[in-house]
Structure formats: structure tokens, C-alpha cells
Design a protein that fits this description.
This protein has helices spanning about 10-15, 15-25, 45-55, 60-80; strands spanning about 5-10, 30-35, 40-45. It is α+β, with helices and mostly antiparallel strands and about 90 residues long. It has two domains: about 5-45, YefM-like fold (3-Layer(aba) Sandwich), CATH 3.40.1620; about 45-80.
Length: about 90
């Protein structure tokens, strides 16, 4: 699903920073910052930035393997296996 986004001039951002930060932090929105009608930067939630960094540093296969391992552990925990370590300690 594509997150909501807003195009905002730097002047608008300065005038209503709290509202724009609320849009990013609480609604998961993306801000596209414009300067003289030109896109110059983006503001995204921290979690989205972490996902971007994760995909930039690993191959898709590595991420897929890690996701499958976390899913397998979750299935084991859900099934009641008592000796399964949490994914963040694996």
C-alpha cells in the first residue's frame, strides 16, 4: 500500500511545521518538500527510513531469508513451542 503524501513548499513547512510532523509521525505520511516548484527532499517516518536502509544494504534474497526465518519462528511460537527464541535474539 502506498502511504499518503503531501507536496509542501519550504515556506508552507516553516509556517505549519507541527501539523506536517503530525502527518508524518502519526499518519505515516510522506512529505515531498518543494523549492521553487522543484522537489528537493522528502520527510518520511523513521520506520520507513529503516526499511529503506535495510534494503539498500542487503540483497533481496537476504531480506527474504530473514523474513522467512522470522515467520517460521512466529509460527512455532504461535503453535506453542516453548523453546523458541524471540526473533531478535536468534
Amino acid at each position: 500500500m502506498i502511504p499518503p503524501f503531501e507536496r509542501v513548499s519550504l515556506t508552507e513547512l516553516r509556517a505549519a511545521l507541527p501539523r506536517h510532523l503530525e502527518f508524518v509521525t502519526h499518519r505515516g505520511g510522506h512529505l515531498w518538500l518543494m523549492n521553487h516548484k522543484r522537489l528537493v527532499a522528502g520527510v518520511v517516518p523513521v520506520e520507513h527510513m529503516r526499511m529503506i536502509e535495510r534494503f539498500e544494504t542487503k540483497t533481496l534474497k537476504q531480506v527474504e531469508r530473514e523474513n522467512m526465518a522470522m515467520y517460521d519462528r512466529w509460527q512455532q511460537v504461535k503453535a506453542g513451542a516453548g523453546d523458541v527464541k524471540p526473533w531478535y535474539k536468534a
